[in-house]
Design a protein that fits this description.
The chain has about 400 residues and is of the alpha+beta class. Helix content is about 30%, strand content about 10%.
Length: about 400
């Protein structure tokens, strides 16, 4: 139950975790968004994802990242729902792209700049977002952007990670049990459905590569930017849409009737990698040789070699400067992909860049609950109450988490 300071106006969205409402905060006299998550302990995997989002947002402070203002105190430690009071924005990029409006080139560049600025801060905090997509980029009328939804994110500086640029061998969003396995499973393995949205998934994630880096987020930003380019003045609504709208993504989300048949999937015109290769071309022998597993190499070699149509062919109305940064974000090899700090220095931002606003986090974020061997419901409740106590230092003793 919400405290009386919050006056609910209208429901503005809903999803698998609950609903989001526009609410007036009478104490601060401002509009906020309240995300309500009911029956949160019914699925402990989802429950941990919500905790991850809360814990990460509590530690991030940047104008291009959505702010978490408050978590109302539950009536007891046996609560079964959570409310998150967050910054509210006018829309998100997914809704924006579907709106029959056009943008000036400077507006599109500003949206990209703000997204990259927020991503720089996130990466400097040791966080990989891992689910960047238009719906997770909130937008205001002044073209400011606020990145949201950190439920699939990972803090990469946990004790089990060897260094900032590596992660345990697990695809984004996999159940935590997968991370405990010492070796990557064969490509044909039926993995969890909880993965970063297919159309924005970097090739190294599709191929289940170990030790992927923050470059996965840069690929996603490239895909988002490509959709924004379809909003430029003079473009038709028919020219908008995802850059890589694959209908399947073997092996993470294959056609299960043929889940072990590599050649069947590589012949599918709408298979995710096929769609990518149609634009950027198939990787060179040298790139394929860098892949970690024999099964992965075998899979890649099943694709028909092609050069790809190229960005200029896909976006003939776009200036070369814009195509240049797009191509740099969408390199197959993550080592060749532009880093966020390099992207911010691109000449396309010359007119709007404010280097003093491209701040970094004061420290690397670690999440204590990620160290737990068995994060059961009791421990989850303890860590939730610990996060709630950040916003309520006067929390009653009977609600405070045990030391």
């Amino acid at each position: 139950m919400l405290p009386p300071r919050y006056d609910v106006r209208t429901v503005i969205g809903s999803g698998s975790y609950g609903s989001v409402a526009e609410v007036h905060d009478k104490v601060e006299d401002r509009l906020v968004a309240i995300k309500r998550v009911p029956e949160m302990f019914d699925d402990l995997v989802d429950c941990k994802r919500i905790l991850r989002e809360v814990a990460i947002l509590s530690k991030l402070n940047h104008p291009n990242i959505v702010r978490l203002y408050d978590i109302p105190v539950p009536p007891s430690t046996e609560f079964d729902e959570l409310c998150m009071v967050m910054e509210i924005c006018d829309t998100d990029m997914k809704k924006l792209v579907r709106t029959d409006v056009q943008l000036a080139a400077l507006q599109v560049v500003t949206l990209l700049y703000h997204t990259l600025r927020g991503l720089k801060y996130i990466h400097s905090a040791g966080i990989y977002h891992r689910d960047l997509k238009p719906a997770n980029c909130l937008v205001d009328q002044d073209c400011s952007v606020k990145i949201c939804d950190f439920g699939l994110s990972r803090a990469v500086a946990q004790p089990e990670a060897k260094h900032l640029g590596s992660l345990p061998a697990t695809p984004p969003g996999s159940d935590d049990e997968e991370a405990k396995k010492p070796e990557r499973p064969a490509l044909a393995r039926n993995l969890t459905k909880h993965v970063v949205t297919r159309w924005y998934r970097a090739p190294e994630l599709i191929l289940l590569q170990e030790n992927y880096t923050e470059a996965i987020d840069m690929w996603s930003v490239g895909c988002i930017y490509a959709e924004l380019l379809g909003m430029l003045e003079g473009c038709e609504m028919s020219q908008r849409g995802p850059l890589f709208p694959g209908s399947s993504c073997f092996p993470l989300s294959p056609d299960h009737a043929h889940k072990t048949d590599y050649k069947f999937h590589t012949k599918g015109g709408r298979e995710q990698l096929n769609v990518i290769f149609n634009l950027i071309g198939t990787p060179s022998e040298e790139m394929v040789g860098e892949l970690l597993h024999k099964d992965t190499v075998t899979y890649i070699k099943c694709f028909k070699d092609r050069e790809g149509e190229g960005m200029k062919s896909r976006f003939p109305w776009v200036e070369q400067e814009s195509l240049d940064i797009l191509e740099k974000m969408l390199k197959f090899n993550p080592k060749d992909r532009v880093k966020v700090t390099e992207a911010l220095e691109h000449s396309i931002f010359a007119e709007i860049r404010e280097p003093e606003t491209e701040t970094t986090a004061p420290e690397i974020i670690t999440l204590d609950f990620e160290k737990e061997d068995n994060l059961d419901e009791e421990l989850l409740r303890k860590y939730y109450m610990k996060e709630i106590a950040r916003y309520h230092p006067d929390l009653k003793p009977d609600l405070r988490p045990a030391a």
